[in-house]
Design goal:
175 residues; 7 helices; 51% helix
Length: 175
């Protein structure tokens, strides 16, 4: 599920239900590739069918439209298979962050804080994530901007005794 095209399909379909044809047009990929990746995501339970016609024969039939609906379990899934998705998502986010760093609004910090303050930060991060998914629109809809948000809040463990090179690995393990 960690294929870069699949990650982009999840992002696109968070804002609106989309057919394979619409996905292909937006991502500038072949319709067959968009259809294949959407079916794989659907089979994995990451996309839902938002619109489908029970009448699936003949030309002019309405297309199947898929929608990604993030759930709290998606945010926390570190089960078998979830680690691969996490790793690919992290790589995709790093690529996007490098490309878009000149437009950034945000903060990055490795700090010590009280448990209560840290829990408040985590709750705010979850609220931001919920807001992004609730208000996402169709690609290129009038009055919209194409934006990206990456939100992580996680506890670092044992970083004070590790070198800088291994500290990043510990942060990833703790996430």
């Amino acid at each position: 599920m960690a294929h870069p095209v699949r990650l982009r399909i999840l992002s696109l379909t968070a804002g609106a239900a989309m057919s394979a044809s619409e996905i292909a047009d937006e991502l500038e990929i072949a319709h067959a590739a968009a259809s294949y990746h959407a079916r794989q995501l659907f089979d994995a339970g990451l996309l839902q069918v938002a619109e489908d016609s029970s009448e699936r024969s003949g030309p002019g039939r309405p297309p199947v439209r898929y929608r990604y609906v993030a759930t709290p379990s998606d945010r926390l899934d570190r089960s078998e298979g979830g680690d691969a998705l996490w790793a690919a998502t992290s790589e995709d986010m790093q690529r996007r962050l490098r490309a878009r760093s000149r437009h950034r609004v945000g903060a990055d910090a490795e700090v010590w804080m009280t448990r209560d303050d840290f829990e408040q930060v985590c709750a705010l991060a979850e609220q931001i994530s919920d807001l992004i998914h609730e208000r996402a629109q169709r690609p290129r809809a009038d009055g919209t901007v194409h934006g990206s948000a990456t939100i992580f809040a996680f506890e670092l463990r044992d970083v004070s005794v590790q070198s800088a090179g291994t500290r990043l690995g510990a942060a990833n393990d703790a996430a």
